Amino acid sequence: MGHYLLRRLLQMIPVLIGLTIIIFGVTRLRGDPTYQFVQADASQEEIDAVRRAYGFDRPLLEQYLVFAAGVLRGDFGESFRFRQPAMPLVLERVPATLTLTLSALLVAWLIALPTGLISALRQNSAIDLTATGISVIGRAMPNYWMGIMFILLFSVQLGWLPVSGTGDWRNLVIPSLTLGLGLATTLTRLIRSSMLEVIRQEYITTARAKGLGEWALVFRHALRNCLISVVTVFGLQIGWLLGGAVIVEQVFAWPGMGRLMLQAVYTRDLAVIQAGVFVSALLIMVINLIVDVSYTLLDPRIRY
Amino acid sequence: MHKPFGFNQAALAALLVMTIVISACGQAPQSAAPTAAPAPAPTTAAAPTAAAPAPTAAAAPTAAAAPTAAPAAATGGKTVTVGLKELVTSFDYPYDWAIVATWIHSNIGDCLVWRDRETAKFVPWLAESWENVNDTTWRFKLKQGITFHNGEPFNAAAVKYTIDRIQADEKALVFPQWRFIKEIKVIDDYNMEFVTTGPEPAFLSKMSGTACQVVPPKYTEEVGKEGFAQKPVGTGPFKFVEWKKDDRVVLEANPDYFQGKPGIDQLIFRAIPEDSTRVAELLTGGVDMIISAPMQDWQRIEGNQNLTLDRFLTTQVQLIALRSGPSKTFEDWTGITSNPKVREAVAYAIDRQALVELLGGMAIPTMTRITPPTLGSSPKLYNSVGTYDPEKARQLLQEAGYNGEKLTFHSTTAWPMQKEVTEAIAAMLTDVGLNIDLQILEITAFREQVYAPRKNQEIYMDALGNSFFDPWITVLAEQSDRRERSGWNGPQADEADTLIRAAAVNMNAAERAKQYEQIQDLLLAENGGPYVFLYQLKDTVARNKKVSFTPPPDGFLWFGKASVN
Fold it and tell me: Which of A55, A265, B491, B515 is deepest in the core (most CB within 10 A)?
């Protein structure tokens, strides 16, 4: 296992190098970034001075090497919007985004696991058809719209929960529900189909023939096998979840990384975009590593 | 086999949840309508918003389900929470000059001079009085006994330190704005003189402009630029308590404020970027005041017995700029709008009355960017729809020898109804025979398109404000050395340049006003100039009635005199 982890961690290095090239290239695709640093009425002399000050007059390769050297030191440059180093700005938003996405994950699993299992075990029943219908509708509803609907229902109409912002756990309920429901619908469908496949296996028939109860059958024998494919897809969905967080953070005024990134894109705050993309990619890689390691917990036959 | 699940019950529960969700999407029940007090009648029926754009169609449902009474903000006491689209990015005044930042900064720090926004006159603030000794020297007497929030005394040395600090840092956003001061002489603790680089008629305006808030020298030196940016200290009505970036700014009343303790104990600014969320917060009492309420929610807000909606005039004037020739950043530009007759045709092709109606009365038609009460505002140009004469426009195009050449028209969606207005204008221009290539961009791409060399083409549409309430800034772009975007040239442009330079240093207010009136005439496309000014925008402040606050003409959010009932 230690060997495997080390190998995976080492594999991340070329990925991260490739990532820095892509980030650098994409932010330079728009042409000369100098105009993001000068005032509207700046003279040509002032513009040239800024170009020199930020090194935008140097060859592209040299610029990349300077950027890459900065990345190695954790220095992604200064946010021109906040006039502060970009990486600390991004890192201070990570806890808020992680809180939101982890809560959304919890919501997704709490909904998807029982619903998916029931749907599979009672295939084509009323509950299965209802769950399928809701899954399709839930998948079709965009986060943004769903967030507004939840605000109307839980905050404006019922007055149970705050509309937006941060504070206590109550502020987290609607955003995590909004973000988690999309994932829940996908997971529900996956758990259902995976479980349907597993419960038709011969070892399940044997166990049932031995008189094992329904609950024991599901939780002792079927569930772990069913979850392997689900967890794989779940790992791939993490990026989707972080992407969804951008919208949800905007709707619910949640001061996370997604909102910072959105504003950075709007204002062409290059340093923050670069740092934010880097941190997001790193998070996705680490989470996928955790998912891969979790296979050993689900299936003892898997060894690294 | 044992049947572990109650399918029917579960199905019923799911249906119930769906029903509730669907009910939330519907209209508010009639019983939710106000009964205790009649709603104030809207001043303009069915008026569209003057608020910042609501880019998403889903914003509309917010209005649907408001309760009758908005509860007081959760924090209790004399707390006022204000919902804004965004917050500051720095508390160090010279490094964040966004209007929202200026509002927040002004509640913490004070300037020597305050501009009365109703009259555009100047009021002594930290200054006791002033005297214009000669064209380039201003003598100030400062108020005594004022201290900063940290106990440091306010005096002439602090004022000098504040301005010296801006002038020493070329990276400060406001650096060019403060270059008009050549020397500051501290006579004693409460008397000082400012010597300007030349005659400066806009001196008081600039002294009350962005980053005019006086900083405490000792504290600022101790904490440095970064420290001050995180935790500011001023002399203002509110003391800084907390800043959570892009979330909230918390201030508390300064009990020793030199103009008396504010009527609000705690002032909170919250960043709520989404229009519909901001309105929902107001309706549920999460915030007590919001800026730029979307039009579709006005009726709901005004129908709520605890809320009120105030409309105010901004300083923003929506305009069309016409490139009139090549410039030093686009030397080989050629385009059909270089012909004055084509520019004139554009001016006659636009029906301002129709545009103002499209905005539901949330605008005042204008043919000038200098709006009252600013000096030099021309009564014949302000609140005027001008001449709409499409026939004349067609004739002018014929005279110009126009042959269907393409006119690129760049616009954005940053301003209220701008997309709709832009499309309407494009249709008006097409109607007179112009071949319009309309490109509506998001604001940052639009800014690049307009400001970067070799980019801006025949037409762009923008809204420009004037937070100085002085005319100099409204015509500055047409000074001969600053015409990168317009490329305006010829005898008329030369005459305008002479007038612009003369007015900028004319200490005689009456003469200066006349000069600006002349400049305004020269700038008009009808007269061969590079601009078609369209209308001055209005905006809204929606608030809980418990907050006593009347927005000034430019909507400046200063809470020193506000109170909570």
Answer: B515
